[in-house]
TrEMBL record:
Keywords: Signal
Taxonomic classification: Bacteria, Bacillati, Bacillota, Negativicutes, Selenomonadales
Annotated Pfam families: SLH
Organism this protein belongs to: Thermosinus carboxydivorans Nor1
Signal listed as a keyword: yes
Classification via PANTHER family: OUTER MEMBRANE PROTEIN ALPHA (PTHR43308:SF1), OUTER MEMBRANE PROTEIN ALPHA-RELATED (PTHR43308)
Record domain SLH: where: 23-86
InterPro entries to which the protein is assigned, alphabetical: Cell_Envelope_Struct_Comp, SLH_dom
Annotated signal sequence range: 1-24
Name of the molecule in the record: S-layer domain protein domain protein
Length: 237
């Protein structure tokens, strides 16, 4: 009986001994050559996090996983570019367990990252062989999330009021805002207020590059969707 108990105790001890390494120790050092050091150096150089005076993390000083998680937690709400978001996402995945210990859920980090202002852009240069002229267009847009149902859109463009590209004789500095609106959804009804594009019937009924007004979609009449908009020329359905 005693031998059986001793054998059971040894087996249990061995099981625990071999199971412990499967869990990362939050106070163990992150190896000096770990990719996370390069990642935090990039964030420090961009001013997202603070380094050691000169904005860098010294290669001869290792950090624990807990310390690295603290760095990620500080950086998660400060990213402003797609590249920075990719870096923080990767760090959050690597140190997710430590972040959870800090009371910061990885899905919460993702939500904060998604709430950042997102930028998009477009640049087009076109040469017309018939006229021997070159036209160009540049657009820079931004979308800011207010909440799960509301966002703000703004876009800067070099195109004119009708959406035509600028030619070589036009001034490249003549930029303007052609989109500035509030997009919100209440129930199944979506409303866009402000400067926007308006296309009805896939462009066959109406196609305007720029309208100052409101567009409402999602309301149903006779089991069909209704689009209602209004601009200076009057209501359009």
């Amino acid at each position: 009986m005693k031998k059986r108990l001793l054998r059971t105790a040894i087996t249990t001890a061995l099981t625990v001994t071999f199971a412990v390494p499967a869990f990362a120790n939050p106070f163990s050092d992150v190896p000096p050559k770990h990719w996370a050091y390069d990642a935090v150096n990039k964030l420090a150089a961009a001013g997202i996090i603070d380094g050691y005076g000169d904005g860098t993390f010294k290669g001869d000083k290792t950090l624990t996983r807990y310390e690295m998680a603290q760095i990620v937690a500080k950086a998660m709400g400060k990213v402003s570019t797609v590249d920075q978001k990719i870096i923080v996402d990767k760090l959050a995945a690597e140190f997710g367990a430590e972040l959870n210990e800090l009371g910061i859920k990885v899905d919460g980090i993702q939500k904060q990252l998604d709430n950042q202002i997102k930028f998009n852009g477009e640049a087009r240069v076109q040469y017309d062989n018939a006229t021997e002229d070159t036209t160009y267009r540049f657009r820079l847009g931004a979308t800011g999330k207010v909440n799960d149902n509301t966002k703000i859109n703004v876009r800067l463009t070099t195109a004119d009021e009708k959406g035509f590209d600028k030619s070589s004789i036009d001034s490249f500095n003549s930029t303007r805002i052609d989109r500035f609106n509030l997009d919100t959804k209440i129930g199944s009804v979506n409303t866009v207020l402000g400067k926007q594009d308006l296309i009805l019937g896939k462009g066959l009924l109406y196609n305007s590059n720029e309208v100052d007004g409101a567009a409402i979609t999602g309301a149903k009449v006779n089991w069909d969707k209704l689009t209602l908009a209004y601009d200076n020329s009057g209501p359009m359905y």
